[in-house]
């Protein structure tokens, strides 16, 4: 038995550097996955909700995340189309703020719902109830940060069986890599990837 244990330890010791090289030490050598497929989508507005996550001054400003500011005119055009089609519109705002912090270009209309939470907008909110009430089957996820509210909320939506439509140009981060890995993760993660469609804001239309 001692010989078996010693042999096992020797194998572990021999493979430890290779394992380390594949994580931190070998970070720059990791192969970049192929670019994902971007698809046009046509959605039924009666069963679709557009989620606008944390487009607020605390997380989406020239000082906090200028890349988020750059997405706003494009998200605003999708918002206008979703409203015209009578899709459900739901906002979120951060724990330290109020709905008055939403960027003026995306300001909610009377009757449009909002939730207040951390990264996972289902957590300690009535988001799930709002979606059920309107018979929602598909959620379009836009917002910031990509690695925060977008990733957490989109993953949870997929776990709950919703179809997730992710416009890559409707999410932002301080780092381009974060936007890329979030897109990759949502397309490849178990129980999430099969429910996720990667698209572009101008490729989303409504019946």
TrEMBL record:
One of its GO terms (molecular function) is hydrolase activity. Keywords: Hydrolase, Signal. Residues 48-187 form the Isochorismatase-like domain. The keyword Hydrolase applies. Residues 1-20 form the signal peptide. Pfam families: Isochorismatase (PF00857). The keyword Transmembrane helix does not apply. This is Isochorismatase family protein. It comes from Acidiphilium acidophilum. The lineage of its organism: Bacteria, Pseudomonadati, Pseudomonadota, Alphaproteobacteria, Acetobacterales.
């Amino acid at each position: 038995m001692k010989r078996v244990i010693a042999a096992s330890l020797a194998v572990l010791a021999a493979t430890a550097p290779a394992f380390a090289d594949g994580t931190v030490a070998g970070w720059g050598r990791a192969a970049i996955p192929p670019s994902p497929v971007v698809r046009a989508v046509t959605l039924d507005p009666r069963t679709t909700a557009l989620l606008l996550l944390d487009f607020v001054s605390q997380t989406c400003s020239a000082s906090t995340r200028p890349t988020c500011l750059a997405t706003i005119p494009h998200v605003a055009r999708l918002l206008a189309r979703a409203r015209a089609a009578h899709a459900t519109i739901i906002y979120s705002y951060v724990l330290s703020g109020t709905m008055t912090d939403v960027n003026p270009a995306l300001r909610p209309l009377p009757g449009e719902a909002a939730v207040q939470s951390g990264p996972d907008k289902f957590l300690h909110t009535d988001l799930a109830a709002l979606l059920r009430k309107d018979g929602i089957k598909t959620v379009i996820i836009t917002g910031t940060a990509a690695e925060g509210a977008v990733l957490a909320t989109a993953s949870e939506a997929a776990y709950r069986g919703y179809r997730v439509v992710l416009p890559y140009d409707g999410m932002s981060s301080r780092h381009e890599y974060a936007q890329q890995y979030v897109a990759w993760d949502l397309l490849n993660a178990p129980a999430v990837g099969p429910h996720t469609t990667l698209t572009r804001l101008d490729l989303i239309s409504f019946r």
